[in-house]
Structure formats: structure tokens, C-alpha cells
Design brief:
With 439 residues, this protein is mostly beta strands. The chain has four helices and 32 strands. The protein folds into two domains: 272 residues, Sandwich (Jelly Rolls), CATH 2.60.120.200; 162 residues, Galactose-binding domain-like (Jelly Rolls, Sandwich), CATH 2.60.120. 10% of the residues lie in helices and 44% in strands. Helix 1 packs across helix 3 and helix 2 packs across helix 3.
Length: 439
């Protein structure tokens, strides 16, 4: 998607591009940190090509941030539509160089994992594995090995530093590296580890969750690169797990760094694998993140408008909301797009406590990037997904003027995933315009 957008930005007719360049120059000037400029400009150019960029009252892209804020592209003059940021101590991201980077709790995480760029927002979770970066059998280490010949090797690590990791050679039969933990129950779990294959051909690593009956995950390691290997268990309310085991290929070298074991945030739900949480002598918890839009009444038209979102969500086992809230909050007045607990997507409008649910993308998976929009005009509600009109239903109740006043990603069932773009339009665009900006 990034390459397509960059090509679009470079090759489309540049009529009106001075508007895009101008607002990003203003954004850069008021930001402490500025990155991912070309891709974000391409996002804005999509709106500009559809003739609606000037109609956007709020536009957020993964571009610019300051301490405690994700800075908005629009509005480009005060009052800005920035997001306030809090939470997420012990947080990391994959930076533009492809390395694991620790990020201060107050800085939004513009994350490049998987080759796409979005603002990363996650639930609280704990890495239960100790000494996760020093997977060795040294003094005091909780790691145990079987059938291996370990030796220390100096090399570039996944966080970009130069350091020592253990080079495990499996003699004869497959061998293993193991860590046990205090028994955990009633939730699915996820495990991960970075593995490096110094051989000239690919070989496998197998990820096992101790005490859990699920079939292990076997992953092929290409030569000469660090690969993050992951495995999640299915939803469960009864299973007990007690640690991890990494089984290494017979007669091969494998290097390991950065192991993680975390459990689902919710009872009886599928396990998760989130961004890396470093640990040393004990388990470490990353706190929940909060993103709240700092907007005023002039930036959200309660009577008509369009709410646009591009991003993907996790599979945390609960609904993950992106909402415009009004007086009384989510349960009284709100307009929401969300990924439901089953992995699909939906939308909801609440006016005066009366709820209307309507399709957002039918069976569209929340786990991949999608472009969604909700349009309201006082008469109808319309939802759009990836360039198509999905549903039209009567808007049975209308918001009072000025009642919608905040964009929120952290109320109740919180958003968890990556945001590529979020926009609010203060008028009900035409269907053709909304189709153009969600394609």
C-alpha cells in the first residue's frame, strides 16, 4: 500500500499539490519529530484529488508528533485537532530502519513493522519471560538448554546495537531452549522470538507453549536476516501453560534474541502477540495507551458529516472502537466504527441513548488495512468500505447541534491496532466523493 501511495504521489497530476506541501510544511514547523512524509502526503493527495481536502476539518496521519501529542495535519492553524497521548511505558516500535526502538510513554509510536506505516496503539500486556534479550545459560539465567553447543557471537542485534548473542548449534537430533514460568490459566497466549540463521540455506525453528496441547508452530528461517517468529493459541477457558520451548533444527546454527510470552487481555480469548517488551531480571508490563482528540465544536458538525478511518485492528478478543463522542459519552451520544470480538467490522450510532447498529464492511476482516467511512446527514446513515457503499439506513434520531465534540480511541473497549489515517469532514460529502477517498 505504501509503494502504491508513493507512486500515486509522484505520478498523479500535481494540480493543487502546493496545498498539500503547504499544510505539511506548517505541520513540520510545529512538531518536534517529523517522519514518513512522502507516504502521508500521498494520503492527503488522495483527498485532494477527490476535491475534498479543503473540506476536512480534522486530518491525522502518521507523520508528526511532539511530547504528549500526535500532531494533526488539519486544521493547520489553532485550534489544532491533535491527539493527546498518554500511557504505554516500556513500549517499543519498529523504526524506519527496521530496528526495535524503545519509545517514551509520551510519544506516539509511528511503527513500520511489516513494511507499512501506522500509529501503533495497544492494550496493557506483560512479557512473562525473564532475561528475554540474553537467552543464555549464564549465571542466574532462567533459560535451560538441551542438546546444544552454545557460544557467544558479536553481531548487530534486532535493536540495531552491536552486542553478543548466543549461537546455538544443534548436534545430531533437534535441540531446545526452554524457560518455565509460574502457571497461567484460562486465557489464550502468544509467544515470539527473533531468530537469526547464519547458514547459507533456510532451516526451521519450532515454537512450543509448555503445558498447552495445541500443535506447535514451525517457521522457516531465511539465511542472513533476523526474523520475528510468532505463535498464538486459540481461545480457551481451561488450559494451563507454564513456559516456552524453542526447538532448533538438527545440525544447524541458530541465534536467538528478544523472546516474549504474553496472554490474552480477556478470559477465554485467543492469545495475542504485540510489539516487543524488553525484560531483564523480572517480567515487565507495558501500560495501556490512550489517544484522545483535542477538538472543539467547530471541528465536528453534529448535523451532517463524514468520519473516515484507515487502519487495522488486533484480535484482542473484544470490540475495538474508533469513535466520535458527544455529551454523555459513548453510551449517550456517539458515532463509532469498530472491529468486533469475532474479527469482523461494524458500526454504531447512539443518539440520546438509543442505539442503531449497521454494517461497516460485512465480513471484512479487521486484521488487515481497510478504509472505512460513515456518512450522516440527518436523514440517512451510510457506511462505506474500501471504495464501496455498504449500507444505507434511515437515521432514526438526529444529534442536536454541537453535541458531538471529541474524537476518542480510548473509552471503554479501546482501540488496539495501527492507524494510517483519520479524518472528519464537516459536511455530508457526496457518495461519489466518499467512494473516491475510501478506494
Amino acid at each position: 500500500m505504501i509503494s502504491i501511495l508513493n507512486t500515486l504521489y509522484s505520478t498523479v497530476t500535481r494540480a493543487g499539490a502546493s496545498l498539500v506541501d503547504g499544510i505539511f510544511a506548517i505541520l513540520k514547523g510545529r512538531s518536534q519529530f517529523f517522519e514518513n512524509e512522502d507516504s502521508s502526503k500521498a494520503q492527503a493527495q488522495v483527498l485532494n484529488a477527490a476535491g475534498v481536502l479543503g473540506k476536512a476539518s480534522i486530518l491525522i496521519t502518521p507523520t508528526a508528533y511532539s511530547t504528549g501529542k500526535l500532531n494533526a495535519v488539519l486544521p493547520s492553524s489553532s485550534p489544532f485537532g491533535d491527539f493527546n497521548k498518554s500511557g504505554a511505558s516500556n513500549a517499543t516500535r519498529i523504526n524506519s530502519s527496521g530496528f526495535v526502538e524503545e519509545v517514551s510513554w509520551s510519544y506516539p509510536r509511528i511503527d513500520y513493522e511489516g513494511g507499512d506505516t501506522g500509529v501503533l496503539c495497544e492494550y496493557q500486556t506483560t512479557n512473562y519471560l525473564r532475561y528475554s534479550e540474553a537467552i543464555s545459560t549464564g549465571s542466574g539465567s532462567p533459560w535451560g538448554t538441551s542438546g546444544l553447543g552454545p557460544s557467544s557471537v558479536l553481531m548487530t542485534l534486532p535493536d540495531g546495537s552491536l552486542g553478543n548473542v548466543y549461537n546455538y548449534y544443534a548436534y545430531g537430533n533437534p535441540a531446545s531452549v526452554t524457560q518455565t514460568i509460574t502457571a497461567q490459566v484460562n486465557r489464550g497466549v502468544g509467544i515470539s522470538v527473533w531468530a537469526y540463521n547464519p547458514e547459507t540455506t533456510a532451516h526451521n525453528i519450532t515454537l512450543v507453549i509448555l503445558g498447552y496441547s495445541a500443535t506447535p508452530a514451525t517457521i522457516s528461517l531465511p539465511p542472513g536476516v533476523w526474523t520475528r517468529c510468532t505463535f498464538k493459541t486459540a481461545a480457551t477457558a481451561t488450559s494451563t501453560y507454564t513456559g516456552v520451548q524453542f526447538t532448533l533444527a538438527s545440525g544447524k546454527n541458530t541465534r536467538l534474541w528478544g523472546a516474549q510470552l504474553e496472554r490474552s487481555q480477556f478470559l477465554g480469548r485467543e492469545g495475542v502477540v504485540t510489539s516487543y517488551i524488553p525484560t531483564t531480571s523480572s517480567a515487565v508490563t507495558r501500560n495501556t495507551e490512550n489517544l484522545v482528540g483535542q477538538v472543539n465544536a467547530s471541528q465536528i458538525n453534529s448535523e451532517e458529516g463524514v468520519f473516515l478511518f484507515e487502519g487495522k485492528m488486533t484480535n484482542s478478543g473484544t470490540n475495538e472502537f474508533i469513535s466520535i463522542l458527544g455529551t454523555g459519552g459513548m453510551g449517550t451520544n456517539s458515532l463509532s466504527m469498530y472491529g468486533n470480538g469475532g474479527g469482523n467490522t461494524s458500526a454504531r450510532m447512539i443518539v440520546g441513548g438509543a442505539q442503531q447498529y449497521f454494517p461497516l464492511g460485512g465480513s471484512v476482516s479487521k486484521l488487515v488495512y481497510n478504509k472505512f467511512a460513515i456518512k450522516w446527514d440527518g436523514t440517512n446513515l451510510k457506511t462505506f468500505a474500501n471504495g464501496s457503499l455498504v449500507a444505507t439506513i434511515p437515521q432514526n434520531n438526529s444529534f442536536a447541534a454541537g453535541v458531538l465534540n471529541q474524537v476518542h480511541l480510548s473509552t471503554g473497549q479501546r482501540f488496539a491496532g495501527k492507524i494510517k489515517m483519520l479524518a472528519v469532514f464537516n459536511e455530508a460529502l457526496t457518495d461519489a466523493e466518499v467512494i473516491a477517498i475510501t478506494t
